[in-house]
Amino acid sequence: MQRRQFLKSSCNACLLAATGFLLPALSGCGPGAYTVFNTDIKEDHIEVPVDSFAKGPLVLVRPKGWYYSIALRKKEDNTYSALLLKCTHQDNQLTAASSNYSCSLHGSTFNIDGQVTKGPAERPLKSYPVTQINNQLIINTKA
């Protein structure tokens, strides 16, 4: 069986068995197509190539040494947003979908702008400023 066929046929099992930690790690599974970009942090920023958005408007950035991923999203107006995928209720990792982020621990959900749509979380997700320099997106992690 080819890898792609295996991932497609196994995806339903992944959704049933995966925890909030495991599901984001399975880039072949989940509700939407996105790219996972592993990278280092350079001083206080992360650089992501613009062409990382070839699969769609969402890139999960995994900074080396960080426990949480960053959801880097291209908006319809060609601007970018970056949100830390850490639930503001009890610090659980969030699962990314095409239209929201969800917490498997207590069921909180956040919209693509990081605002709470369902509790028990009460605070929005941490956001980082994103600037574009030529073909690189720069996420400022100190802001």
Could you characterize what this model shows?
With 143 residues, the chain is mainly beta. It has a single domain (3-140), classed as Rieske [2Fe-2S] iron-sulphur domain (Rieske Iron-sulfur Protein). 13% of the residues lie in helices and 35% in strands. The chain is built from 2 helices and 12 strands. The protein has helices spanning 3-17, 22-25; strands at residues 35-39, 45-49, 58-63, 70-74, 80-84, 94-96, 100-103, 109-111, 116-118, 127-128, 130-133, 136-140. The strands form 3 sheets. Strands 1-3-4-5-10 form a 5-stranded mixed beta sheet, with no helix packed on it. Strands 6-7-8-9 form a 4-stranded antiparallel beta sheet, with no helix packed on it. The longest helix is centred in the N-terminal third of the chain and has 15 residues, at 3-17. Mean pLDDT is 82; it is low at 4-31.
